[in-house]
Amino acid sequence: MDNDDLDARPWFGAWLAPDDGVVSNYYEDQKLMEGPLIKLGDYAHFRYFLLYRNGRFCYYELPLPKDAPLGGDDHAPRRIHLTLTPDHLRGVMMLNATLIGKLLPKQEDEYNSDVIQRGLAFNRKRLEINLTGYSPNGELISWRLRAANDTTYVKWEKAFRLAFRPIWVQNTPHCLICRQEFTLLFRAHHCSLVDNVKTSLHEQRLHLKFVFRMLDKKKRGFINRRKFIAAMKCHKLDKLMNDFSTFDDVMRIGTRQRREKDEHRLAEMKQEMSRLEKKLEAEIRKRVEMNKSLQSYCDEQVTLMTQHFEELLDARAKQVQDRLDLLAQEIQNVQALVEKEKHDIPLMIEAKTNELTQKLIAFMDKFEEERLRRIAQEEVIMKRLSDHEHATSEAFDRERRDRELKYSELKSALDSYTSTRIRGDEKFQAFAQEQIASIQNALVAEAQAREREDDEIIEALNRYTAKLQDSLKVITSPDA
To answer: What is the extent of the structural domain holding 70?
Structure first.
């Protein structure tokens, strides 16, 4: 599988920085990838997802604390620690991944198309991944993830492609393809993707596939693969029996070398222990002297701090007493001012009341005088209006008579002008008709003259043409 370049990190429950790696676990019940999502909503929630090796995708929403940092650089790691609980789980999706090795495509382009058919689409330009899978109740659902930057998107893409790979579980009691139980006679194997050939070890299966791939296609059908496998097993058993003769010598030499190496390491360890003990004793003596000097220095500093604190306390007490005396004096001044105001305010209210009463009486007298003056002024204005109305009506009557007289004069002049204009128009129309009739007669006479001239020209041309034809006949005749 293509997970050699992924870093394994056995941690859980913290915020993930954008530059953290993909968690690569082999077994299907362990985390394959986890990380935060971009917050697309307008509410304060932290979105987080977990992707397991078996294709289970879990989506969490955690409420942010009030003092959480908002905004800033997306590349900066965040240090707010939150704990994932089942209460924060908002959804579970089971990706449509295969667990059977026969369904694995053989080419990379076939694998990419197969991933798209099973509901996984990548958008590198927008840093988005579209997922399609099934909920726990069997409903088909689709989700969209958006990465914070390009580095995070690349790691997510690797993790989701790895989640769609088939799972080969180690040390299983049965074959992952044919599902047959392993027994003493039916040895452990994994079926090939091409046929049902079974081998005893995973490395031997890969070696045989390489050998058969190098053979010619025509010869591949004539080789007995079972005999070839048996020959390989016999060769390995013979090699193992020949190696037993040198096994004792190798074990004896290895035991002696290991004993010498252990003795040498023990001597070095004893020497190192003695050196460390001497160094520890010297350090203990040094620390005792340092502790004594530190104790004397601390006692002196405590005495100085005590004296300084007492002096500061006396100064602050004197300052507080002075402020209290000043505050008492100010309180006495305020009390005297209040007593004075109690005596002065009623007298001031009474004086203001008398003054306001006098002003109100004077205002009423002036108001009455103004009312009488306005009544007399209105009578004068009404008399002026009536006189002006009488003069205006007389002027209107005089103007009306003048306008009616002028109108009758204009009407008689207009009638005389209209009759004169009508007679002139009739004379002009008769003259125009006479001129048009004479022009039409002249035009007809000219047309007839032109027609006679055209007929004469045509007749002359016909006579000329006949003359030419007669001349040509005379010239071309054989008797000439």
So the answer is: 31-163
